[in-house]
Amino acid sequence: MRGIISCGSRVARNEKRSRFTWSVNAQRQKRSNRRNLRIFRLSSLALRILQRGRLLIVALPLILISSAVGQVIPAPFGLKWGEASAPILSFAEHTGSKIETQPGSSGRETIDVRGPFSNQRYQRLGFTFQSGRLVQVAVYYQAPEESDKARELLAALRGEIEQSFGPGELLETGSEKNADGYLETRRVFRWERNGCAIWLISMQVKTADDLGPPRGEISVVYANLGLGRQLEIDSQARDEK
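Above: the chain sequence. Below: its structure as tokens.
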């Protein structure tokens, strides 16, 4: 009888110990779950912060790049890309300038307006139209006979452009004989922004028999390349219909 009671007491103590152990383990598991949940939440928050950081890091250069390339080169003399020839013809008539129209390819036409123009350094202007809309303006300057003054004029024109659009790209420099046997010396700079471009071109020509200084011309050419190409495509599409 005493053995049975002793055995029962041991069973009871074991059951009580098992319940206690289970309770302790359950509490430990609960605390572990809460700790893992906090870690998960912190990790998720950190991940979102990092993702925002990456998006911010990516977005800032895109904003800077878009602001840089979004700068459109305007047409000179207060003109607007895509407008008709009426303002130019009115200007030529008002100044008494000589006008010469030169047809080109792919629906292009250039109106040359020759000076002299009062109080201006340029002597000739060229306005090119694609399908009747302005896409290019060329401004021509007579290069001085003295090489130093010619370089000064080129540097002054280049400086004026760089004030608005920064340093240009040097495309070409050097001398070579052309098809007529004349020695051509060229120096070409380019600025390009959002489908528009400016070329600064210095050209000097000298023949072998010419003992005098080379004859030269400096030109600044403004062009809306994107508009010109789109008008050309639209013109071709109309012709195919």
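The chain is about 45% helix and 30% strand.
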